[in-house]
Amino acid sequence: SDGSIRLHQMTSEYPLMQWNDSTNGQPVIALQWALTRPAVFFVLDASSNLYIWDLLENDLLPVAKQTIPSENVVTMTLLGEPEKTNGLLGIALAKESGQIDIQYVKKKWALP
């Protein structure tokens, strides 16, 4: 609820890494690891900002931030086939009106 993100190992109650205020204090609505690239994850905050984290490129800050204009996004999910190496990775964004917006991720964040 405070915008912090914690990375845990299943065998410990203490986080391996913690990013405080990673969304400028906005609550995290959804977080999901990339299906095709293990070091990348996506975060959606309550202000409809989408953050892309690539831990191999920068483990302190997100590598990209995209504001979804016009309407509140209430959740997201990732679309892709991990067993394929074509680098296709999509994000389905569910908006408050019930509209679904699908966007594709740049290959640099999707390729294995």
From TrEMBL:
GO terms for biological process: intraciliary transport. InterPro entries: DYNC2I1, WD40_repeat_dom_sf. One of its GO terms (cellular component) is cilium. GO terms for molecular function: dynein heavy chain binding; dynein light chain binding. This is WDR60 protein.
